[in-house]
TrEMBL record:
Membrane topology according to the record: Multi-pass membrane protein
Name listed for the protein in its UniProt record: Rod shape-determining protein MreD
Lineage: superkingdom: Bacteria
Organism: Stenotrophomonas terrae
Protein family: Belongs to the MreD family.
Length: 161
């Protein structure tokens, strides 16, 4: 147990890295396919440490992301709260899925996130999102396995042999 307590830096560093990965400039062609790093990292922490990361945390980190990225204030906060709520509701089931099935569940959650984002854009009168915008959930689904394994290894102090 003491090993877990000494790894308190892992969660904040993972969120900072997720925010920084979202700020890296990409070519215009690749922008719509950018994975939603913040949602992936949030999903990991909601599944693994629900006592530390919940709806309030998701809302605060979403507001921080909204301010950092200059989008509609509250947009990412809403999207992350919805994702955290669904994950909390089904955490017991998702946690015990094999990682391949967890990746499918994450793909569904990321697709749901895109639907919410498209609805928000529609409500505020912004232009419709291009078809390539729907590729990002697939990429996020593919990244779930390596991200989960990496965060788990760092959090628990496992070493590859």
């Amino acid at each position: 147990m003491s090993r877990l307590r000494t790894k308190g830096w892992v969660m904040p560093v993972s969120f900072v890295l997720a925010l920084l990965l979202a700020l890296i400039p990409l070519p215009e062609l690749l922008l719509p396919a950018r994975p939603y790093w913040l949602a992936l990292v949030l999903a990991y922490w909601v599944i693994e440490t629900p006592d530390k990361v919940g709806l309030g945390f998701a809302f605060c980190i979403g507001l921080l992301a909204d301010v950092m990225f200059g989008g509609i204030l509250g947009e990412q906060a809403l999207r992350l709260v919805v994702m955290a709520f669904i994950l909390q509701r089904f955490r017991a089931r998702i946690r015990f899925f094999p990682l391949s099935q967890q990746a499918l569940a994450m793909g569904g959650l990321l697709f749901n996130d895109r639907v919410i984002d498209a609805a928000i854009h529609l409500l505020v009168g912004e232009p419709l999102l291009p078809w390539s915008y729907w590729v990002a959930p697939l990429l996020g689904m593919a990244l779930w396995l390596p991200l989960y394994v990496l965060l788990d290894a760092v959090r628990l102090g496992k070493r590859g042999r």
